[in-house]
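Run Lipoprotein through structure prediction, thanks.
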Amino acid sequence: MKIKKILANSLSLFSLTACQTIQHQTEPNTPQLIADESTKWYLSETGKFLVQGILGFSYDSGFVYEQSVDIWAEIYFTKNKQQRIGFETVDEDCFAYQNHSDDALSIYFNGIKVQMKHQCIDKNIALTFPKTDEGAQYLMAQFKDESKDVLLKEKDITVYFSTKNFNFMSKQAYESIGGI
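Sure, done. The structure for Lipoprotein is below.
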């Protein structure tokens, strides 16, 4: 499944949900806060370690429009307890958990193209994650650097993910499974 379709599904659902949006002029040192779920990593009520993505648009005039979108970066573990990052999205083509994953298109993260896979993990919910160990390690390194956001870029669509609080939540995630 292409990320563009995933984002299109998320954006169409956006109009039906009460996601918070902001509009502002860009100025140096201006905080760009949308909502708690998108400003830093957190532990959800369902026990997931995640952060919500922000779809950003900027115009030549400097005007910026941002909105939260139904795509979350999430910490998950492989069967052998390797910590990974995946992207949970709404996917109407998912009817239940599937034990296999399909190749998805490659996606740019902070300017580097990463091969991805796509798997249905529940009804209407999918997880898109790096196909290779090298891609998984690269993505983890990007989130561990809390000095900058992680940018997912697919053609003309850019989704920003906060890295704030990632390292703390990463440690908490290991604690939640009893350690390494």
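Residues 38 and 87 are 14 Å apart (CA to CA).
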